[in-house]
Amino acid sequence: MKQMLRPLTVLFMLLTALTGVVYPLIVTGIGRIAFPDQASGSLVVRDHKVVGSALISQSFQDPKYFWGRLSATTPMPNNATASGGSNFGPTNPALLDAVRTRIAALKVADPGNTLPIPVDLVTASASGLDPDITPAAALYQVARVARVRRLDPAKLRERVLAQVREPQWGIFGESRVNVLLLNLSLEGVQ
Amino acid sequence: MTAQALLTIGFFVVVLIAAAYPLAIFVARIADVSPIRGVAGTVERFLYRLSGVDPAQDMSWPRYAVALLLFNALGALVVFAVQRLQFWLPLNPQAFVNVSPDSSFDTAVSFVTNTNWQGYSGESTMSYFTQMVALAVQNFLSAATGIAVAFALMRGFARRGAPGIGNFWVDVTRSTIYILLPLSLMLAVIFMSQGVIQNFDAYKDARTVESLTYPDPKLDAAGAPLKDAQGNPITEPATTQTQVLAMGPVASQEAIKMIGTNGGGFFNANSAHPFENPTPLSNFVQMIAMFLIPASLCLVFGRMVGDSRQGWAVLGAMTLIFVVMAVVANWAEQQGNPAIAALGVDQTHSATQAGGNMEGKETRFGIVSSALFATITTAASCGATNATHDSFTPLGGLVPMWLIELGEVVFGGVGSGLYGMLIFAIMAVFIAGLMIGRTPEYIGKKIESFQMKMTAIVILVTPFLVLVGSAIAVTSEQGRLGIANPGPHGFSEILYALSSAANNNGSAFAGLSANTPFYNSLLAVVMWFGRFAFIVPVLAIAGSLARKKRIEPTAGTLPTHGPLFVALLVGTVVLVGALTYVPALALGPVIEHLQLHAIH
User: Fold this and answer.
1) A121 and A168 housed in the same domain
2) What is the number of structural domains in chain A?
3) Which ipTM score applies to this complex?
4) CB-CB: which of A42, A43, A119 is closest to B347?
5) Is A179 found in the same domain as A87?
6) What is the interface size between A and B, counted as CB pairs within 8 Å?
7) CA separation (Å) from A106 to A23, B3, B61, B211, B363?
8) Do residues B304 and B422 make contact, with C-beta atoms less than 8 angstroms apart?
9) pLDDT tens-digit map of B122-143
10) Do A127 and A172 have their domain in common?
11) Which residues of chain A have a CB within 8 Å of the CB of B391?
12) What domain range is A10 assigned to?
């Protein structure tokens, strides 16, 4: 037992220094040199001001913007210092209340829309910070945004489709549209 | 079930095997006790010289176990201390206060036992120093401990008439510097290329496109939310156009979190958080990372006992169970939620959307990459999540829960998956021996009374912790207080928590409010014994096997490398898991499934 004391304490300290200090510093160094934008948060800058991160969702409530996923973070949605999902189970009445509320908001903003409502538009993401919606969810909103902004729906539809990112390398994940980048691309377009 | 799902699962298995095979050749060299000469061994020799380790010293199993327990106890102490002192330590730009004693205790045990259950939210609790120097270090060392025990058990089978099972200090050092560190470095670079952050900046303010009005809960002087007569929180409208972005050294931690099957997220949302797992590609790499070392250790086992077919048989059994479970989870989640369908929402799979049950899932991952991730993270004892398991359909949520309850032997944790599965292999040859009336043997070692007693302890200890722990939680006021979802789902939350803790997984039905003194203490005790009351008997088996002679196979020996043995092994794992947990599962996910489909 006694002769274990030195290996125990010294080896523990050395391995702590190696894995807890040296290793993260090396990774940080590589990040600074090779991936400075990604390592600092993929920030989106407009007029020298940080307006958000391309990876983190923001709240959009105005009908002239495309809306994102529901966010269950507190106290406000899309809180990037308190990530998390709703954790509502599939039979929880609170889940259905949240879905109903979103459906109602979509209907109020666009009463004439008869398209089926895509599921990702009425459900909360796991992180509460999901930056994307499905192409279906973006296309569902084209009529509303075009009307409010007085744009040609066909042209807006093309703009949206141009922003669709296909599954990565054709096999990984799902097609998606980044809501913040899509909305920023509409700035200045009425 | 979509064609894309089957294609992804198939592709995953192919890439996994292709990566695990070469790694196994390398790891087998690390497991060999002979010194690594030349430049390659410089760091290793330097560490031994400073810490006074004699790498040639061979340890008996009790000595090995004592070294392991001391090393892990010291680790727990340090993690606890750093959390309790973090306010006065460096790299705390958000000035987070010291973590509460019960939460610190729970988290310390959680990270040392490779569970990485998290009662706290990282981005609002832990300083960068705590994340790096306390938590991430244990990500490495707990994984290295697992690999060390796996090496020791392999030596037990490989050696003949030997007094020892290796040197714990050497096994931990080598696993860390030759396996975990290089793989983590590679992964961290891949993750950063995809957008995982790595910096020490204070949280950043962004001026958002639209200003946001939200109901801000009013707090009393102590910071607790004020409630009105009906018990609803009192709020007042607040407006903001600033979004605060949490930062941190995430990529370095993310890499070891996945490759070490730790699973403790830097952020509360874990691998669902875009800064932890930004793209479908990073997601795929994370999934491979979780299974990589567990899969390759199976092949290392084959090499070390001098018959690679033995390793492939174990790997085959694991793969078989995994693929079936992945298909079930995908099918269940793609079905969607009939209650939401009843509101007229479109959940069908089409060219423009994944469809299915999207509550608690990220758009970039959809159903396939979420359900597959959930299967992998619970088959492996990782516990990272890229979707909220609490919001899965009843059967989709049953898959991860039951995979955990099988004892984390379907790939399992780094090292722990293999030694757990080998214990089941001993159980399987014992059952076969009873059927044919012969003394059972595995890899040329007779399995006798002492090994079977230890095997019985190993197989019974986790179900005991899960079922007794769940019983304590559901029968106590404080236990029930944590439940978030009504009905049978609430029971599932508790059962999942105890299963996750006892089997050192760490994922959760996260609605459960577990950051309370009750759950922090209960789960910490369960995690500790789930880990070490398992490891010590395994080391005892290793030591007793190493002393035995190796007997040559005869015509009467049950071959343990063919399909018959794979079927026997799968049967043993599934049967033990089913017999132990079906009654409990019937009260949770099964009832909920019937309710959901009876109403709609």
Assistant:
1) yes
2) 2
3) 0.97
4) A119
5) yes
6) 404
7) 49, 32, 66, 19, 19
8) no
9) 999 999 999 999 999 999 999 9
10) yes
11) 85-90, 95, 126
12) 2-37
